[in-house]
Amino acid sequence: MNLSKFATRFDSHTGIFQLMEDLGHAMTGNNHILMLGGGNPGHIPEVQRYFHERMQRILDVPSVFAHVIGDYDPPQGDRPFIEALARLFNREQGWDIGPENIALTAGSQFGFFLLFNMFAGEFENGSRQILLPMTPEYIGYSDVGLSDNLFVSHRPRIEKLDEHTFKYHVDFDDLEITGSTGAVCVSRPTNPTGNVLSDDEMAKLLAMAEKNQVPLIIDNAYGAPFPKIIFSETKSIWTEQIIFCMSLSKIGLPGTRTGIIVARKEIIDLITRMNAVLILALGSFGPALAFDMVDSGEISRICETVIRPFYRNKAQRAIDLFRQELEATDYYIHKAEGAIFLWLWFPGLPISGQELYERLKRRGVLVVPGHHFFPGHDADWQHKHECIRVTYSMQDDIVRKGVQIIAEEVKMAYRRSP
User: Distance (Å, rounded) from C-alpha 51 to C-alpha 81?
Assistant: First the structure.
């Protein structure tokens, strides 16, 4: 089969394909799989009950139901929902934005495809790249570029906090924005590690972006004001130099594929035109299900009193399990500051993270090997082969069984090492 250069970019194995393929098989009826690898949010009864009742109200009003399934939304997205989002961000975050600063996308992954290829790739006067100030970073970034070498990234500074906990920091001594930098991108909280960049780190990155007149893209899929899966107090500012990317997925609506971009008007206008060309219009179900929650501000209460405590408690239980099962083993867990993952580091692991993934998969446990989370980092750094990402969002019995098997395989690998 003779394929275009565009098609061949998808004709090879990628980390995100492996992740979503595993997730799809595990979530569609294979009860023997312990899914600790994907980013599927937990099924929180109170949250699901809210959306079930909202869906019923939509079904009970024929005109509303007919609009949701039978009418195209504009390429910017559902206008009333966008207006409600603007009011929420201004009220909760202290921003000063209007509907002209917001566009919806067909999921945040598609949003990053648009943004990364907008600011990086081939230009008339050369090529530009997306700067990732610190890896590991989100696995889904790696393969969205329409040109090669879309990313340049940097190793973090590692701080060991206690016997089994550590934290990554941006190494500003090794960081610079050059003429080939098209944009800077960070996730906060960070997928995969649960790291939260400090307000000071964010201020330094913003100052660098402003000085060099490049956008600072903030992946806010787990941050405030929703879903607020963030366990430390942080400030979240917006300026015209910043592009915020959000999603309805982690409040419990991953199936609606609703991404949200907040940016200056010129960027939003371009995103809107891209939507029109590439997908015609946005899906209506996400905005329809979340509108009342956003418009009333109820989303803030649910995130603060239900979603955040749900994940904070699950994170601590998973950490306690690992500490129990990995006793007398050389390991570190990244400080859990947010998101829905634990990032485990096994110094001197005798096998690679990929081999550990394969061994665990044969035993019915799915994780994600760490080397997939270093886009734009070509150096042979052993650390990235000593880490795995584990999600704790699944049911407690699945997490418990999975942790036990992970610990068994890790201990076995160390014992068999010469």
Answer: 16
d(CA 8, CA 161): 44
Residue 303: what are its φ and ψ, rounded to 5°? -65, -40
List the one residue out of 321, 329, 355, 323 whose CA is nearest residue 414: 329
Three-state DSSP state, 202 = helix
Q: Which CATH class is domain 73-295?
A: alpha beta
What CATH homologous superfamily does 5-47+301-412 map to? Aspartate Aminotransferase, domain 1 (3.90.1150.10)
* All structural domains of the chain with their residue ranges: 5-47+301-412, 73-295
> What are residue 342's phi and psi, to 5 degrees?
-115, 140
Whole-model pTM over 0.85: yes
**Rg (alpha carbons) of the chain, rounded to whole number:** 21
Instruction: Say if CB 139 and CB 372 are below 8 A apart.
Output: yes
Predicted pLDDT of residue 6: 76
Residues 189-204 pLDDT 10s: 999 999 999 999 999 9
What does pLDDT average to over the chain?
Answer: 93
Torsional class of 241: left (φ above 0), alpha (ψ -120 to 50), beta (otherwise): alpha
In this model, does residue 26 exceed pLDDT 60? no
62-70 and 45-60 helices cross at what angle (nearest 10)?
Answer: 100
Q: What is the DSSP string of 38-87?
A: S-PPP--HHHHHHHHHHHHHHHHSHHHHHHHHHSPPPTT--HHHHHHHHH
CA neighbor of 78 nearest in space, from 258, 312, 326, 233:
258
